[in-house]
Write a structure and sequence with these properties.
This protein is 20% helix and 32% strand. With 104 residues, it is of the alpha+beta class. The protein has a single domain, classed as OB fold (Dihydrolipoamide Acetyltransferase, E2P) (Beta Barrel). The longest helix has 21 residues. The chain is elongated. 11% of the residues are buried.
Length: 104
Amino acid sequence: MKSLSYFIILLFLLIFSCQKENLIPPEGYESVILKDLTGLDGCGFVFLQKSNTYLEPLNINDFDIKLKAGNEYWIKYENQTRYGSICMVGDVVIVDDLKIPYKY
């Protein structure tokens, strides 16, 4: 009976520790919300940061991920000062990596 109790406690800890890890972006990534600004001249998908500023990705179509406006994504990116913005709502960035949080 004791071993069953230990097994249940261990299973409980494993389940909840995995869920906590999936809610936090990995080191070097930022949690952002995808917004569709297609109606504005020269705009398309942009990322909204927690600080309410936008990031305009130049290479968003390079990733084989089905994107949906309003969903959260984790991105790793580099600011690009040598490229001008057509949309002019935020900083122009090159996305190095794009991940979908596990809660979807």
